[in-house]
Amino acid sequence: MSPATVISSSPTTLESFPHIHDDPSTIPHSLDPFTITTSTGFLPYLTSPTTLPDAFKPLMSLLDRLPVVKHDGSPGLLATYELGPAVEQELPDLTDEVDKLVTADGKLDLYTIMAVFRDYSFLASSYLLEPCWKNWRTNPENGYGLGRDVLPKAVARPLYRCGQILDIPPFMSYAASYALFNYTLDDPSKGLVYSNLRLVRAFERGLDPRSSEAGFILTHIDMVKDTPGLISAFLFVMDEYGAHRWRSDMWANSKPSDYLSFRVFIFGITSQSMFPNGVIYDGVEDNKPLYFRGESGANDSIIQIPLLDHLLQIPMPQTPLTEILHEFRSYRPLPHRTFLAHIRNKAEELDVRDFAVEDTETAILFLRTLNHVRSFRWRHWLFAREYIIRRTPHPTATGGSPIVTWLPNQLSAVMDLMISIYESVLAPLKAQGTQGYNGSCQKLVEPMMELVRDQKEKLTKEVEKWCKERGV
């Protein structure tokens, strides 16, 4: 059955996401801060708070003193490796205060709870990885060593409770902690221009907006700010049925040579040599060791392009790497997970991919859309190669995925689909001299496919080279 004749049995996007066209300023704080709208896209509907309620002053005091270089330029607790003792001596267990964070109508204030989650996750990662930071800073050739494997009750319990309420794992994540809920505006009247973005929390030097740490995070925010148009386009494709860009600014905003410094603090506690036995969250889950993935771009809703993966129905290989990709989904904010699942289900229901190759013109448009995904993932691979693989032998990314083979798994998937569509749909038309695949069409497609084949070969050789050098 052609998608145009499909009678949808599932709710429309508007029915499933009733706030998607709302003015963000009218959305109540009892809704998840990552409630998706056509005005804010995948960014939170309101810039994150920079301070917490008074009950959390002990937490804020530690975070203000935490960075290697504080806002005033003086050394912080991580500079002198004194964070651990300070946490153990100063921080009370404020878990009960989390449930007191409510809106005027008595509902839980998810906007404020997300800020509390962000701050506790920054403190947790800093506490657990402080010994690794010291090892790497004093003897980088010896690697990271071991992290602390017990998270104090005063950090573990409130962090765990926030995670329960927000339905995300109680560990630092890309959206809820490190990036998308960790920025403010220097001048609210200037809006979301890059030069106006500032971090709320940082590990190393990120409170200085000119630092590589700030550049690394703020470039992601600068990219995600463009997603409102993306959301609107997908609404058209899904509910009206007819259907991106990579910012090269990262090279300028965050130096590859600086990345390893603050990277220490965003590792997780799954598949990492620093935490061979996981981490005990004191007072949580009967003190069983817990394992969580670290902050990763794979947690984002556009960097790994899950939105386009779902809409275009790009098939991922049945590999352990794909299983990790699926596991990363749980680290996205609940509204993002729900929206992406909706897109995936609607695309399958409408058979978008099959419809797109029913005629030559649409097949070419579909192939060109896939090519944007390929280009994006290729550049992401180049970033990983230059920022990480060439600079450290550590075998895993911050999220715990294998550093050499992880991105090529997804990149190869889109390349394989492009080659398959070309060979099954367009190559036969070219061989037959069909009018529908004329000279102008070939000028669009043939150079693109030549590049795909060349990059696929180059990628295979690079991955083999890096794996051989690392004994993988």
Automatic annotation (TrEMBL):
<keyword id="KW-0408">Iron</keyword>
<dbReference type="GO" id="GO:0033754">
    <property type="term" value="F:indoleamine 2,3-dioxygenase activity"/>
</dbReference>
<dbReference type="GO" id="GO:0019441">
    <property type="term" value="P:L-tryptophan catabolic process to kynurenine"/>
</dbReference>
<dbReference type="GO" id="GO:0046872">
    <property type="term" value="F:metal ion binding"/>
</dbReference>
<keyword id="KW-0560">Oxidoreductase</keyword>
<keyword id="KW-0479">Metal-binding</keyword>
<protein>
    <recommendedName>
        <fullName>Indoleamine 2,3-dioxygenase</fullName>
        <ecNumber>1.13.11.52</ecNumber>
    </recommendedName>
</protein>
<comment type="function">
    <text>Produces N-formyl-kynurenine through the oxidation of tryptophan.</text>
</comment>
<dbReference type="GO" id="GO:0020037">
    <property type="term" value="F:heme binding"/>
</dbReference>
<dbReference type="Pfam" id="PF01231">
    <property type="entry name" value="IDO"/>
</dbReference>
<keyword id="KW-0349">Heme</keyword>
<dbReference type="InterPro" id="IPR037217">
    <property type="entry name" value="Trp/Indoleamine_2_3_dOase-like"/>
</dbReference>
<feature type="binding site" description="proximal binding residue">
    <location>
        <position position="380"/>
    </location>
    <ligand>
        <name>heme b</name>
    </ligand>
</feature>
<dbReference type="InterPro" id="IPR000898">
    <property type="entry name" value="Indolamine_dOase"/>
</dbReference>
<keyword id="KW-0223">Dioxygenase</keyword>
<comment type="similarity">
    <text>Belongs to the indoleamine 2,3-dioxygenase family.</text>
</comment>
